[in-house]
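Data deposition worksheet. Section B asks for the primary sequence of the deposited chain exactly as it was used as input, without tags or linkers unless they were present during the calculation. Section C holds the resulting structure in C-alpha coordinate form. Section D is free text for depositor observations; keep each observation to a single sentence. Incomplete worksheets are returned to the depositor.
Section A, Depositor: J.P.
Section B:
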Amino acid sequence: MNTHIDCKHQVQKTRRTFLKGIPVVTAGAVAMPTVAKASTPDDASKYWAMLIDVRRCIGCQACTMTCIQENAVP
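Section C:
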Protein backbone atom coordinates (compact mmCIF):
# COMPACT_ATOMS: atom_id res chain seq x y z
CA MET A 1 0.00 0.00 0.00
CA ASN A 2 1.65 3.17 -1.19
CA THR A 3 -0.05 6.26 0.22
CA HIS A 4 1.30 9.75 -0.13
CA ILE A 5 0.40 12.41 2.42
CA ASP A 6 0.86 16.01 1.36
CA CYS A 7 2.10 17.68 4.56
CA LYS A 8 1.95 21.20 3.13
CA HIS A 9 -1.72 20.75 2.31
CA GLN A 10 -2.44 19.58 5.87
CA VAL A 11 -0.56 22.55 7.38
CA GLN A 12 -2.48 25.01 5.21
CA LYS A 13 -5.76 23.54 6.41
CA THR A 14 -4.65 23.89 10.01
CA ARG A 15 -3.42 27.45 9.47
CA ARG A 16 -6.65 28.37 7.72
CA THR A 17 -8.69 26.91 10.56
CA PHE A 18 -6.56 28.78 13.08
CA LEU A 19 -6.98 32.09 11.24
CA LYS A 20 -10.73 31.59 11.00
CA GLY A 21 -10.84 31.18 14.78
CA ILE A 22 -9.11 34.50 15.54
CA PRO A 23 -12.30 36.64 15.35
CA VAL A 24 -14.01 34.29 17.81
CA VAL A 25 -11.15 34.56 20.31
CA THR A 26 -11.01 38.34 19.85
CA ALA A 27 -14.74 38.69 20.47
CA GLY A 28 -14.40 36.60 23.61
CA ALA A 29 -11.51 38.72 24.87
CA VAL A 30 -13.48 41.91 24.26
CA ALA A 31 -16.53 40.52 26.06
CA MET A 32 -14.63 39.31 29.14
CA PRO A 33 -14.19 42.74 30.84
CA THR A 34 -17.91 43.37 30.37
CA VAL A 35 -18.77 40.06 32.02
CA ALA A 36 -16.29 40.67 34.84
CA LYS A 37 -17.63 44.18 35.44
CA ALA A 38 -21.21 42.93 35.53
CA SER A 39 -20.35 40.32 38.15
CA THR A 40 -18.70 42.75 40.60
CA PRO A 41 -20.78 44.35 43.32
CA ASP A 42 -22.06 47.87 42.65
CA ASP A 43 -20.74 49.13 45.98
CA ALA A 44 -17.09 48.56 45.07
CA SER A 45 -15.59 51.88 46.12
CA LYS A 46 -12.00 51.43 44.95
CA TYR A 47 -10.63 50.74 41.52
CA TRP A 48 -6.87 50.40 41.15
CA ALA A 49 -5.02 51.14 37.94
CA MET A 50 -1.42 51.71 36.96
CA LEU A 51 0.15 52.80 33.72
CA ILE A 52 3.66 51.57 32.95
CA ASP A 53 5.81 52.40 29.93
CA VAL A 54 7.04 48.89 29.17
CA ARG A 55 9.56 50.26 26.69
CA ARG A 56 11.54 51.51 29.69
CA CYS A 57 11.02 48.42 31.87
CA ILE A 58 14.13 46.56 33.06
CA GLY A 59 12.21 44.08 35.21
CA CYS A 60 13.23 45.44 38.64
CA GLN A 61 9.63 45.59 39.98
CA ALA A 62 10.31 49.02 41.57
CA CYS A 63 7.09 50.40 40.04
CA THR A 64 5.07 47.62 41.66
CA MET A 65 6.62 48.14 45.08
CA THR A 66 6.14 51.92 44.86
CA CYS A 67 2.48 51.53 43.90
CA ILE A 68 1.86 49.16 46.82
CA GLN A 69 3.49 51.56 49.28
CA GLU A 70 1.86 54.71 47.88
CA ASN A 71 -1.68 53.37 47.66
CA ALA A 72 -1.64 51.00 50.65
CA VAL A 73 -2.67 48.14 48.40
CA PRO A 74 -2.60 44.69 50.03
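Section D:
The CA atoms of residues 5 and 35 lie 45 Å apart.
The chain has one domain: 7-71.
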